[in-house]
Batch of 2 targets.
Target 1
Amino acid sequence: MNNENCMELSRNYPKKWVLFCGVVFSLFFQSIYAQDVKVSSLKALKPYLKKSDVNVVLAPGTYKVTAEDVKNGLYQDEIKLKHLTKVLFLFEGSNSTYDFSGVTLKIDTKVFQAFGKVQVHELQIIGNNNVLKNLTMIDDGSVHDAPARRATNIVMDGKNNRIEGFHVTTKGSYPYGYGDAFGKGGKVVIPHRKHSACLIRGESNHLKDSNFIHKSYGHCIFMQAASNPKIEGCNVEGEVRKTDDMLAETSGPAFDVNFMTVWGYKLPKGYMLSTGEAGIRAYNAGETIIDGKEYRRGTSNPTVLHNTIKYMRTGVTIAHATGKKYVEGCKAIACENGFSLGSGVALNCSADCVFGPVYSTTYENDKNYNADITILPASEPYYNGSGSVAYIGGSKHKISFKGGDSNMPEGLAIKVGGDKNSIRLMHGNFPHQNNFKASQFNLNNQTNYPVVLSDKSFGVTVKSAGKVTNLGSSNKISVTKQSN
């Protein structure tokens, strides 16, 4: 399309068509004149991270970043929002593609302290409309090589960026091996230095078809200040550990505090804890940078599609996001908790209850949670200290459970309101997160798991193939056959 065509459009068509012509014209020439570049070293790659309209291919091979490189001044990029952050690879340009097929990037875990007491991002995007694909990132070193402050492998700012086909192994945090038993936020028993894998911020950024091996105390994939983020086709695998094994330690940070948790009591036996945090998590606050401007806001309208999360504190927890929350085709395996959306839709999802509930209500005022969850047979021996197949509080939900496990142990139940029996909520700890009322919703239990309607339930309509114990009031109960 040439200038004469555009002038003709301006004479004969409305203004919107002229604008459309201009956009097409711009994109056409952008695609023609985008610079194709092949580089064979990290030093040669770095200048192209600041450029726009480039298509860069890094030659296959293994590349290393060491603490000595940092000391020699090879990685000096930084971003300052709320905190000063040092960035190893800062993608500042826009409209570019970076192909890392066949590339393995090994980052020495000693790098996290080499910058001093600042947070470190290994890779961060602040430009727009970029595609990064097929990179293998490995934190090379000990799980105990913690950052001096905190670290994150990947941070997505800007807008309309996509990361796809990444393989990320995250290591290096303190303390490691206890989950959040000794602190995670402001209040701590053991001071911690977290290391998360992937933080999605900005506008309409997309994480796709990527794999994460998470051996770190921190979230795997989480969202802050993100508008319309999408997480699709990703696999997350963390690690879990019995509290009995933690209590058997005869030295170390937990032993040194006599196993007194941040919850105000000694670590109890009988529970399984993830050594990391959430598989996929959304926050209601955060900061991001788009087109050079800083924004402080929560997360809104997340879409989470066809992801599998294993051995994490939660599978998908996006209760703190606002707007439309949509989860489809996701699977939580051997997590402490499967799904918590607060409100929104979880369609064609699945989870087991081997270590904890497949679904748990976050707050008593949660409303309008529409869930279709298949309960999977256990992939390993049960160690579910809470005794919960699911925990449902709040109101105005439509929840359906199907599937189940023919080898389910005694004592597990779908709980409607009342005590969660959570390891974090014992002895009156965090009362606003426990002992919920449950009212005015529909529960369709197509499994043989029993349902217990607590004395804090009322006006709940239950169809169940399993036994129902009704301690509440004005609940409507009917018995059905288990679906195939």
Target 2
Amino acid sequence: MPTTDTATAGAVEGRRIVVTGVGANPGFDLARSLQRLGHHVIATDAQPLAPGLLLPEVTARVTPRADDPRYGAAVLQLCRETDADALIVGIEPDLPPVLRARRALAAAGVRVWLPNAESVHSCLDKAAFHHVLTEHQVPTPRSWLPDQLHQIPDGTELVVKPRGGHGAQHVHFPATLEQARVLCELVPEPLVQERVHGEEFTADCLVDRAGQASMVLRRRSLVKAGLAAVAVTFHDERVAGQVRRTLAAVGALGLSCVQGFTIDRSPDPVVITEVNVRVAGGFALAEAAGADLIGQAVNGLFGRPVDHGRLGYRDDVFLTKYTETLATGAVSTLRALQEQS
């Protein structure tokens, strides 16, 4: 995988950066990428055994869960204690409390690069996302709330999921409308969507403060539990155009990933399904294909210009991911190591 030349004019060097949610793929790989760029990572997660807390040379810290009222204050105190320069959110649940703490973090000298609260909400809430994209005439699956199920046309294939879900949790594919009704009683804050069939893709995106967007497109050839286990880069101006329209519609800023489908024999050949306000779990493919995604994101985070010329990439570069055992051992030993860090 190519590395970024930190001697390049304008590149940000050796900062102390908090990465949240290092127990999940996006945060874990982000921590490693930042380390390769010469930054010191302060890795955080609510799970004491999160794999990212075990990465060599990170400062490991356990935080409350994002839905704990103490989370924002705990992260702020953590940043002060570790002399952090910046914070990057690695998982969706951390976004709302970090947004609420953004002014306090800025006052403490901690940089955070996120869009405004309305933009984040429109991406976290799938019903709001559907409304925004429909309003901007960006093709997206038809969606219904539980009290709107009578509006669903006969024969429509459906998927039931939480409005605020992530990581493919609580996602179900009912065979009938009656099954969908039952699932709406079981799934937390449910949303019913039209099921889309086609070739799934992700766009790893970076939007600068002037609104210019660069992206790396990759086909999700094999998806497991919402994560691209096999992916291959490609170029397609139709897809790129719809991704840009989507980013503009939601007011994206900084790192994000856009997901959707390309569909043959359809009046809408590109359908957008979601935007995640974070780096994607498979972003390492963007870097392997030549895009300086994280390096340029760090530049933007610290107020430097984003060099979009360094975000180009090659077609037909592949990525495969698998689950491995990172570490085993005594919990007492691990706790001692974390206390020392």
